[in-house]
Amino acid sequence: MATDSDAPLSRRERERRTRRQAMLRAAESVFAEKGYDHATLEEIAERAEFGKGTLYNYFEGGKEGIFFAVLDTIYDELCDLIAESVAEALASDRVDPRACYHTLVGKAIDFYHDREDLFVILIKEAYRMCFSHDASKVAYFQRQQERMVNALLPMLQQADENGALRDLPLEAMAHLLIENIDGLIVHRAIMANHPNRPTSCQHQSILDDPEKAATFLTTMLFDGVAAPPSA
Amino acid sequence: MATDSDAPLSRRERERRTRRQAMLRAAESVFAEKGYDHATLEEIAERAEFGKGTLYNYFEGGKEGIFFAVLDTIYDELCDLIAESVAEALASDRVDPRACYHTLVGKAIDFYHDREDLFVILIKEAYRMCFSHDASKVAYFQRQQERMVNALLPMLQQADENGALRDLPLEAMAHLLIENIDGLIVHRAIMANHPNRPTSCQHQSILDDPEKAATFLTTMLFDGVAAPPSA
Amino acid sequence: MATDSDAPLSRRERERRTRRQAMLRAAESVFAEKGYDHATLEEIAERAEFGKGTLYNYFEGGKEGIFFAVLDTIYDELCDLIAESVAEALASDRVDPRACYHTLVGKAIDFYHDREDLFVILIKEAYRMCFSHDASKVAYFQRQQERMVNALLPMLQQADENGALRDLPLEAMAHLLIENIDGLIVHRAIMANHPNRPTSCQHQSILDDPEKAATFLTTMLFDGVAAPPSA
Amino acid sequence: MATDSDAPLSRRERERRTRRQAMLRAAESVFAEKGYDHATLEEIAERAEFGKGTLYNYFEGGKEGIFFAVLDTIYDELCDLIAESVAEALASDRVDPRACYHTLVGKAIDFYHDREDLFVILIKEAYRMCFSHDASKVAYFQRQQERMVNALLPMLQQADENGALRDLPLEAMAHLLIENIDGLIVHRAIMANHPNRPTSCQHQSILDDPEKAATFLTTMLFDGVAAPPSA
DNA sequence: GATGAATGAGATTTCATTCAT
DNA sequence: AATGAATGAAATCTCATTCAT
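^ inputs. structure came back:
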């Protein structure tokens, strides 16, 4: 059954979407740069090359509405990323959770390089939301977190059935795996932006290289900090 | 071992400190509730039961100065928490990193219950700082992160010498261990504040109980997500 | 000879200028009345019958920007006054510096009656500027003083070539001539505003009448305080 | 009959005056530097090395009271300067108004070098007063101007009786002579503080040297800008 | 008499939103 | 549909003055 997005679009409608896209991109860059509170509609409109008032024709709810539209695209993309990795993993005979997570971390790092703004918005604004006094914002955040967890869960469930996972609640595990991706990227970003601080060479070199960073995180989380018993 | 703060204080000076404390507490609660940008000095002053102008007699640098004074207390307390756990661990014959971390997580959870505001501020504002365009703010954040890592490191180094740790860069390990404490607390907070969402019982019960939560996180990070090879 | 300002303007642009004019007039009256420091944007906006924020759409640099826009108009008008008188004088066969200055003083007095606010601002604020710690303000003041001196100089140079002037540096002379116009107007204003103080009748009557005042100042500065040698 | 100031003073009273002096000096420097509006009692108290509250024990009328006390000292000193010059001139057989004015200008320049602050206050604040909406301030300004004029008048009256002056109202003449001293000093100050601006060498050298500057102004005002008829 | 902590009115400035064109 | 001028609430910060010590 055809959904809205499959329906043939009038030229008018297509143009409308293009303009909306431009506005979203402008909003992304401003929100990332200034943070939600210091972003101004004036600047968003300027970067989008539209008039300020026009934004109100494309987004309901003013500034906040635009912001949530941006958040939506962020979470959409992240969920796609997770879903992709999971689909690949589930496609094989015997799901390899380590490999799947390693791939996912790599994709997340790539994504960060492509769309740095989106990640920065996430880091600057998303966690704030979960302590907001506005229940609807909290609910939004929870919903989106859940989407990501749910995207990852099938892979973990399959792996669990195969006995590949420690006997711990899978949801909590999924949360932890996802949160640590953010953590890794923040950590890498700090070091990249401010490389002049003295840190151990080893530490630095491991996180600098995307491949090694993904391996590091995967090892940490799948095999643990503790030395293997035989060692 | 006498520090400045042990020196006998004039009544005047003691009173001054008391009032400063009151202002800091008021600031904590407002910053936690509203976030930095929406916190107003008016409200801080009101809750501290002082006039607006008085805040300027106690803190240099206006709103930002007050905010950093609050951040200082947060990081001081967190570093103390870490240092305490590490000191206990190092006091024993053979340092047990798992036990040490477990203790630390427990203390962090307790601390969160005592001073929820401080944690909320941390979560709402700290990460934003590392993407600030103001280099001095980034440097402050890095300095404080480093303090925490450095407080934990001695324990890891000792454990590493005992061959108890996997061969990975200790600094990165320390970062990951510390960041996951925040992550756990955020996770617990979300579930506690909004328990009405459907989640698996097992998941819920594990994270609700501080003891179990600490055990969960310690197991996750020390032993890994993957099932033990023998299993 | 068409300048930009002669170009045909869109209705939009014409309206914009009208509104800017209204704001400038309002600003003039408030700055004159209260002085720069005690003038408030609130009151300027009120008198201009616009909202406070609207001022910021018409002038860059906030309060200071508005103030300098006012100063610009003042100096523009004064320079025009001088230039007019000088042009008339130079148009004749043999420039008569006495007549030229007399005319100029008369025009200045008329201008003061028309635009009292502008003069008051000049007196209240301009000299302060030359002892400002902000070098750019000092430079602005010097630049404007120089403009006025340069507007008057051609006349003096011509007169000097005709042997009509004492052999003294012309720039210093120009300064003195210009400054004394302000001085005269201040003096007249004081007496006009507060005529109840006992002063000699002769003194009073001479300065009250614009024509006599101009003659007095011209005689003073061109022929000197000292009695003519023949007398 | 002994006046208050001739009465022997108790040690207590002498100390009180000394402290008052210190406060006045501090106030002078702050008012000169910042101008009335931006001067703060805090800074005055600091420079005077007293507590802020103490100022209120020494001056009635708070900030404004202190300011007028400073103004009083300024005008006292200026009147003394004028009175001195006039007394010297009147002491001779035949009063020489040119010489008297020349001396006065020289003294004023010296005074400016000794007490620059006082002059700066005069220039920054005094003229503002004559357009104040507060009648008592205007009256104060007029009173002080009159004092200066009255101090100079006897010399002019004597010279006038000797036929040395042009037949013009003496009060207006006195005003003009006094105002031009301020003008000269401002002019010299601007050039001294910002000598990098290109000005004619002649102009510069004449005003730089106090002696030549006094001669210039005296010639200008007594003999006039116009060339002598015989020339 | 000297002090300086406390105060809060009042200033400038920013910006989301509206709405006439 | 697109615009951007107008708005005014609300924020931070300053400082003269008071008054308990």
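Residues 45, 50-54, 57 of chain A lie near DNA strand F (CB under 10 Å from a C1'). Chain A is about 75% helix and 0% strand.
thumbs up if we can close this ticket
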